[in-house]
Amino acid sequence: MTPITEVEGRRLALSNLEKVLYPATGFTKGEVLHYYATIADHLLPHLRDRPVSFLRYPDGPDGQVFFAKNVPPGTPDWVGTAEVERVEGPTRMVLVQDLASLMWAANLVTEFHTPQWVVQDPGVADRIVFDLDPGAPATVVECCEVAVWLRERLAADGIQAWAKTSGSKGLHLLAAVRPTPSDQVSEYAKGLAVAAERAMPRLVLHRMTRSLRPGKVFVDWSQNAARKTTATPYTLRARPEPTVSAPVTWSEVEECGAPAQLTFQATDIAPRVQDYGDLLAPLLDPSGAGSLPGSLPVSPP
């Protein structure tokens, strides 16, 4: 019988709690739900008001993995939703606004992916992101070198950047920006990716061309497009082990000498949060947002 749990006054059926989702470590679905419950206070602010794309892996990363953008069938009526314009037409998507909604979504077994804008101002970015993706034999170690260069380049424009692991092979750089149309943010990000390639031609690539990527770090600037999403801070990833897209300190980035130093699993996150708090909390403070050079910031609605 599926156990019924009450979360903030909402009744939830949490299923298959003993099911092993990560065979490499024996990490179960119950442990996945426990992870999200314990990290909720830090995860929810990064999800709030951002329509969520789910990358679902209900049978673990070795089973079927698929994106789900529409509101899933059977979604409780108390889960927030919003209509979002997409290329294929209007789509109703989930908003994870509270602990009950988070636990309902986590029960689907999913990665959380969000855009760089909030639903009240669609297509107007309040964040800029760079996804640093290494091509073997390059690793996150090389990503760290590129991240430090980008940090300094952004700082020269008055924009303060923060880092998190992708939870896979690479590193993400994020910064808060004053509300600016996504296409302007994308153009600025592309300019910095091109500049990074010129500064470090043996290490950096700004194009996605697969044949050019071995041994280099692809600086993916395109995730700033309004239609794109990026793995949300603190989300678990559909990887062989329960790795997390974890915020990291700049000291950890600067001192990284091996990929294992920037690989964090679900069980690592609570102690890190106890030590550091939310390292990405500055992204949530509009007073610290920077302005893109030459951009035309948009007044909030």
Question: What is this structure, in a nutshell?
Answer:
This protein has helices at about 30-45, 100-105, 140-155, 180-200, 250-255, 265-275, and strands at about 5, 10-15, 20, 25-30, 55, 65-70, 80-85, 90-95, 110-115, 125-135, 160-165, 170-180, 205, 215-220, 230, 245-250. The chain has about 300 residues and is of the alpha+beta class. Strands 13-14-10-12-11-16 form a six-stranded mixed sheet.
Can you offer a commentary on this structure?
There is one protein chain. The chain is an alpha+beta fold and 301 residues long. It is 26% helix and 25% strand. The protein has six helices and 16 strands. The strands form five sheets. The protein has a six-stranded mixed sheet. Strands 6-5-9-15 form a four-stranded antiparallel sheet, with no helix packed on it. β7 and β8 form a beta hairpin. α1 packs across α2 and α1 crosses α6. The longest helix is centred in the N-terminal third of the chain and has 19 residues. The chain is globular. It starts with a strand and ends in a 25-residue tail after the last helix.
